[in-house]
Amino acid sequence: MPTILFVGDSITVGSVGSTDKSGFRGVFARKTSYKIGSVTAGLQHVGPFVDPTKLHHGGVGGATARTFGAAGDGTPPSAYFVLSPSSFKVGSVKISPTWMETYKPDFLHFMMGTNDIIAKRESAEIFADMQILLKLAQTESPKTKIFIASIVEAGPDWFTKQASAYNDLLRNNKTINFVDTSQTINSAFYKEGIKAITVDGTHPNQRGYDLMGTMLALALTNTSSSSSESSNSATPKNILIASGLAYGAYKLFKAWQS
Predict the structure, then answer these.
(1) Considering the entire predicted model, what is its pTM?
(2) Which contacts of 83-89 are long-range, i.e. CB under 8 A and separated by 24 or more positions?
(3) Domain 3-257 CATH superfamily
């Protein structure tokens, strides 16, 4: 069964604002499950942490692209304990094997940048760190298909400006697999306001997570399973009903098997 590793901050963890503490990952899991006979199957979620719904992940509350890259000690980005070379140390502790070495996921969903912007880092800086993380991840697990995800733009004007600029940098870069996980939640934010989709001005509420998880399921089942897909943007070309999502997940599984 194909595997997926979700790496990110507290929005990836999903414990704040989510009714079952699985956030958009749980919605994604439900949207992409399917049945083969009497057996329900889907992507296997891997990672060092597990939420109350038993889904594994690599979300770390408060994480930033820079701290994942530099472990807070001022060294150049080297992907912290997530994607770092096996000789990487945090203090005196050698972190080996890394998450990528351990799980060798078929897919990696990487969503990072919210806390960097809160720390008043510029979008270009965050993007540069993410490019380094991406290269390290590819080195650690060359067969993994890596998706860099858009972040939620909800916040005060200064935050929204930087988040939108960062998402545009991801969206317009032709060398990465960009997935617009936050597209629909961002649209709702601009139309309805921050209280409509967040619980505290930063973390999505259940409706926000529903929008994100459904968007991601649409995007990945529409693009990851297609060998003819050439675009770097995993934005759905049409809106699929639930059965269509399940069929897309099945195609993804078959493509992985071949």
Answers:
(1) 0.80
(2) 83/7, 83/133, 83/136, 83/137, 83/140, 84/136, 85/136, 85/140
(3) SGNH hydrolase (3.40.50.1110)
